[in-house]
Amino acid sequence: MPTAIIIGAGPGVSGALARRFGREGYGIGLVARSAEALKMQCEDLSKSGVLSDFSVADAGNLPELAQAVDNLTASLGSCDTLIYNASVMRAGAPLEVSIERLQKELSVNLLGAYQSALQVAPAMIERGAGAILFTGGGLALEPYPEWTSLALGKAALRSLSLSLYKDLSPKGVHVAVFAICGIVEAGGPFDPELIAEEYFRVATSPKGVGDREVIIQPDGTDPYYNDPDRRHVDTTLRPPHSKD
Q1: Which CATH number do you get for residue 108?
Q2: Average pLDDT over residues 118-145
């Protein structure tokens, strides 16, 4: 049975991912901070016949996170797909964010992703197969000052993902970063079930370099969603992926 480990498990995109991979016979490992919420997710998956387990950890606490990943690989088997979906979404302008706060938030937005990849990559390389998927965002492509810390984290995560792709792709391991450029909402253009479908497609049948970065920006959606009041029009370039 293949295994997918989802770090930053919750009811939105992560929940849709757990259901999508579970329907295909994957064992699902969930990591988040709330044992109660994780237990409920596993119970819901079990009702659908999906084997799952959870381990509690703060993604920014690297020893906790390392232990959680080890716990899940011990109970479910070696990780075939790692999905890192944890982040700290906290507003703050460049001259307002303290160094201490930035360090703490980068531990979630970047370092937890890096450590998790380091843990699962060796076994994937040995098998010559596997997928490591990171949830990025539009702030990695065009930052806005209100979201300084998150934008820094997402930009660094994007760079990490592209570097890992170049290193691991020749060894049979696909790495990709997903820029979800909008507000996730059921029934909307950024429906979590539709997003999960893209993750599953890339995890199971990547098409090479074109799938090293997946930008989710459906036609008609606002490429400036991070600047809804258009405060930064004069200092912003239209994202190259968006259509006129």
Answers
A1: 3.40.50.720
A2: 97
